[in-house]
Amino acid sequence: MASDEPTPRKVYHERQHFELCALHALNNVFQDPNAFSKEQLDEIYQFLNFIVYILIQNFTDISILICLADYLYCQSSITLCLFIINLSIKFTLQSKHRLAPDAVLNPHKSVLGTGNYDVNVIMSVLQSKGHAAVWWDKRRSLERLCLTNIKGFILNIPSTIGWGVLTIPLKRRHWIGVRAIDNIYYNLDSKLKQPEIIGEALQLKKFLAKKLSSKNCELLLIVSSEVEVGREWKVG
């Protein structure tokens, strides 16, 4: 007799390739190998580097930024335009918070050219898909998470670089994707051989609490643009 139970969905899990953990985390959260590409992330980081270059030069003539904003408006890239304005303000104020990488010459991507994109690239590429990354304030209780309105999570944690059995003592950062599939949450860390079952909502909050107990761990909520605007990712 045929079973009435639904067939469990197959969990998509991208494994680590070079330093493309940000790309893997994004595709794992979206459960789609074609959601984002290295070419997309590279294009965005090049664009952001141009903006950073302008800011570093301490331009007093804002005509360049006005022309850029006008171009983005004509391209219907309103969200990217607003993002660039926010980014400009952040760099102007010399923000200390940069999640990854730790490269000096390039604030958005590893100097090796192999990936390890920072949070600005992730935020921008998500906007191109009608989504947003919301930084979670660790002072908040995880009970305030409105899980039904959150597509997934991306964690940023300290990491070491390995080459075979050799561990290279360099300070790096690593992106990890987490999301629910059929109401079960999975750790989709690209460094794992296979997805790791976390459990249901209670187990998820325990998992996140343990990760966030480290002062060097940061959490991003991946939500739709509508949820971000309405701040519907939290309760109360």
Describe this structure in words.
It catalyses: Thiol-dependent hydrolysis of ester, thioester, amide, peptide and isopeptide bonds formed by the C-terminal Gly of ubiquitin (a 76-residue protein attached to proteins as an intracellular targeting signal). The protein has 236 residues and is an alpha+beta fold. The protein has a single domain, classed as Cathepsin B, Chain A (Alpha-Beta Complex), CATH 3.90.70. It has seven helices and six strands, in the order αααααβββββαβα. Strands 1-6-2-3-4-5 form a six-stranded antiparallel sheet, with helices on both faces. Helix 3 runs antiparallel to helix 4 (78-92). The longest helix has 19 residues, at 38-56. Residues 91-115 and 163-170 have low confidence and may be disordered.
Task: Fill in the keyword field for this structure.
7 helices, 6 strands, Cathepsin B, Chain A, 35% helix, 20% strand, 6-stranded antiparallel sheet, 236 residues
Tally of separate helices: 7
Share in β-strands: 15-25%
In which range does the helix fraction lie? 25-40%
Tally of extended strands?
6
Question: What is the CATH T-level topology?
Answer: Cathepsin B, Chain A
Counted up, domains total: 1
Mean pLDDT: 76
> How would you sum up the global shape?
globular
Report the uncertain regions: 91-115, 163-170
Computed over alpha carbons, the radius of gyration is 19 Å
Which structural class should the secondary elements be placed in? Answer: alpha+beta
Q: Can you identify the CATH class?
A: Alpha Beta
Our measurement of the CA-to-CA distance between the termini, rounded to an integer number of angstroms, reads 48 Å
Major sheet: arrangement of strands: 1-6-2-3-4-5
- What oligomeric assembly is this protein in? single chain
The description of the largest β-sheet is:
6 strands, antiparallel
Assign the CATH architecture.
Alpha-Beta Complex
GO molecular function, one term: cysteine-type deubiquitinase activity
Function: Cleaves 'Lys-63'-linked poly-ubiquitin chains, and with lesser efficiency 'Lys-48'-linked poly-ubiquitin chains (in vitro). May act as a deubiquitinating enzyme.
Protein name: Josephin-2
Domain Josephin: 8-236
